[in-house]
Amino acid sequence: MPEWTSQDLTIRQRERLERLHRRFGREPLPPDLPGILKEQLGIDLTSRLGALELGHPFVVAPGEWTGELERVVAAVEAGWAAVVLRTAAAWEPDGGASHAHLRSRPGPGARNLYHPSDVRHERPALVWDRRLDSRGPEEYLEFVCAASSSARGRTAIVASLASAPDRAEEELAHAGRQLLAAGADALEALWSPGDEGQICHLPGGDCRWALRVICADVQNLQGTERARAQEAFQAAPTLTLDFGTPGAGEPRSFRPGDLAGFLQEWNLEGRVVAAAGGVYSGRDSLAYILAGASAVQVYSYIAGRVRPVLKQSRNKFEQVLYRLLLDPQDGLAAGMAALKNRFGISRLADAVGLEHKTAKGA
Questions:
Q1: What is the reported pTM?
Q2: 6-197+205-361 maps to which CATH number?
């Protein structure tokens, strides 16, 4: 889709969106905001990602902030569609975890980074340092249970696990069953392609699982390792493609995503995917959606230092979601209204992958 401006909206659409923007700049975002947008603008933001039915496509990505119950509650109260909890080490029936050493891996921690062109420091990149949640299995299960109870079905709670490739099948299956019993709505498995030449098989192809891939980790794979990565991608029910984290051992740098190029390179057009990395506006999220994502994960924009948001709230999660959805200049609602006017598409689900569909039809 070519670049759009507010002039691509009708006068009535602009007036209604600006009215909503002013109203919810003063009031808390309501739980039925997607329904209000559907009524006022004729756009349907609902989406489906594996086992998750989402009222809109915005998901909080895993990080230090999603390892604290207080902040998970804040994300739920703000109205995020889902929260991916901080990644923990998967465990076996005896409680042992092959990645336990990663919990205390030394490192500088997350830092705000900015692209050289970002002179106003408006688009921070908080790059994950690959350290895992420090809690053991029982404590992490209690955390997931508390997060699920706080969500009360309004926000999906996604547990996140990492495992050594040679133990992944047993550890992920065991830990996953316990996490689902504790209240998790879905699960993500973090996988580093090329580790010991192993493939990460998700348990039984369960649609509640997603395979999270650090895209920078796979860009240089060749030969057998590349074939194994391709097999893992095809076997996963859902993929989360993270463009925001550098490859292992690479310098911490800003990495906006090229989802369309990645899907084409790995023959993944039409697969169910979520995308993460470089989302600071509804315009960024719509670009991912048109390229093939059913959901977009956001973290840096929430945890980083960004330009002020005109929203009367101390809840950073609410401030960010307000701008992502309702900004009249580059919010997702404005972009979807422009898409409706230009192509007659009013459902976000129909916009997923539109870039590929129009290219094939050209």
A1: 0.93
A2: 3.20.20.70
